[in-house]
Amino acid sequence: MNKQQLFEQIQRKKSFLCIGLDPVLDKLPKHLLKYEDPILEFNKQLIDATHDLCVAYKPNTAFYETRGVKGWSTLVKTWQHFPKDVFTIADAKRGDIGNTSAMYAEAFFNEASSEMSFDSVTVAPYMGRDSVSPFLSYEDKWVILLALTSNEGSKDFQTKQSDDQKLYEQVITTSSQWASSEQMMYVVGATKPEEFQNIRRLAPDNFLLVPGVGAQGGSLSAVCEHGLNLQCGLLVNAARSIIYAGSGEDFAEKAREEALALQQEMEQILTAAQLI
Ligand SMILES: O=C(O)c1cc(=O)[nH]c(=O)n1[C@@H]1O[C@H](COP(=O)(O)O)[C@@H](O)[C@H]1O
């Protein structure tokens, strides 16, 4: 999916919500345990109940890898269940020497090889240009590069100053030369709203993937104050607050209610910004 198609989907659905599919077997509603693949059933029902309210889904691969071969198969089948109009993010935080990154890129982008073809993958910038460029060789596929993450430990390296710039600022400035805003997004945590003005100065046109609303306490309105751009430019992710909104047979309805509340807030924000 290209940038214009993503923006059109945002306008059509009046939403820039990304739902994180991070399922843990122990937290699933008990009635799903009778299914052969309870996590797949959980994901399918969540997707069916929410896909008109969100523009993206982001399964974090850790939640699948932890279950070995079975988990990977659940990830493939979950990908197969995504409606064609949604933007899909493999949250795998990959990046390695070039020939290894090329294998990671195939794993997430090349359906003939891996039975999955996500629109994007999250990538760590630490190993530099040649570790990121293999992901950029696929048309209409995206790299979502970690810039300023939502966690406490982001202070350990990302906000450290060197050569008059914080490390995350250098990540954005340097990587902007590797790909245009048609192929490069940045991860910026919702827990750091005070940094969005600065980030928009460095990356005015890029989409930002913003995790950290909901369970991590980030505020949607604070993110949007400086985060929006002329094509919205934001994909705001929530996982636990939506997928575990209910724990009974009505879990998908409860998830829908939670997603609807966020979508309605987003619609107001998009209207006020005259983007819809
Ligand atoms: O890359 C990410 O998606 C990510 C980056 C970041 O800085 N913080 C962050 O929470 N995430 C991911 O976003 C999701 C957040 O989930 P919830 O806190 O449950 O909404 C998890 O899959 C995290 O791994």
UniProtKB/TrEMBL annotation:
<comment type="pathway">
    <text>Pyrimidine metabolism; UMP biosynthesis via de novo pathway; UMP from orotate: step 2/2.</text>
</comment>
<feature type="domain" description="Orotidine 5'-phosphate decarboxylase">
    <location>
        <begin position="16"/>
        <end position="255"/>
    </location>
</feature>
<comment type="similarity">
    <text>Belongs to the OMP decarboxylase family. Type 2 subfamily.</text>
</comment>
<keyword id="KW-0665">Pyrimidine biosynthesis</keyword>
<dbReference type="GO" id="GO:0044205">
    <property type="term" value="P:'de novo' UMP biosynthetic process"/>
</dbReference>
<protein>
    <recommendedName>
        <fullName>Orotidine-5'-phosphate decarboxylase</fullName>
        <ecNumber>4.1.1.23</ecNumber>
    </recommendedName>
</protein>
<dbReference type="GO" id="GO:0006207">
    <property type="term" value="P:'de novo' pyrimidine nucleobase biosynthetic process"/>
</dbReference>
<dbReference type="InterPro" id="IPR001754">
    <property type="entry name" value="OMPdeCOase_dom"/>
</dbReference>
<dbReference type="Pfam" id="PF00215">
    <property type="entry name" value="OMPdecase"/>
</dbReference>
<dbReference type="InterPro" id="IPR011995">
    <property type="entry name" value="OMPdecase_type-2"/>
</dbReference>
<keyword id="KW-0456">Lyase</keyword>
<keyword id="KW-0210">Decarboxylase</keyword>
<dbReference type="GO" id="GO:0004590">
    <property type="term" value="F:orotidine-5'-phosphate decarboxylase activity"/>
</dbReference>
<dbReference type="InterPro" id="IPR011060">
    <property type="entry name" value="RibuloseP-bd_barrel"/>
</dbReference>
<dbReference type="InterPro" id="IPR013785">
    <property type="entry name" value="Aldolase_TIM"/>
</dbReference>
